[in-house]
Amino acid sequence: MSSTHVFLREDRRRGALQPAYSGPHKVIQRNDKVFKIAVKGKEVTVSLDRLKPAYILADSSPTKQLNKKPTVNEPPTPPQIIKTTPYRQASQIP
Questions:
Q1: Can you give the three-state secondary structure of 5-66, one letter per residue?
Q2: Region annotation Disordered: residue ranges (predicted)?
Q3: pTM for this one?
Q4: What is the model's pLDDT at position 71?
Q5: How many domains does the chain have?
């Protein structure tokens, strides 16, 4: 595995809606079966079996996406048309 960041599998008991992996964590050092990674500011040595590579895109910063101005060549997005069909008549409450 040659990625710069990894996800770490948490081996503790967790609830149904809690994620199985934490991260991404920065890789500090690689060996054959163990990696040294930064977890919450500390160096932790973990087995390769508990790691999953993290693929980080170069342009994934949210500030670049929020500050993006539309160019003149982009066509405007058409409005959504919502069509309603009554399935039964509404009864009036006395």
A1: EEEEECCCCCCCCCCCEEEEEEEEEECCCEEEEEECCEEEEEEHHHEEEECCCCCCCHHHHH
A2: 1-23, 60-94
A3: 0.56
A4: 60
A5: 1
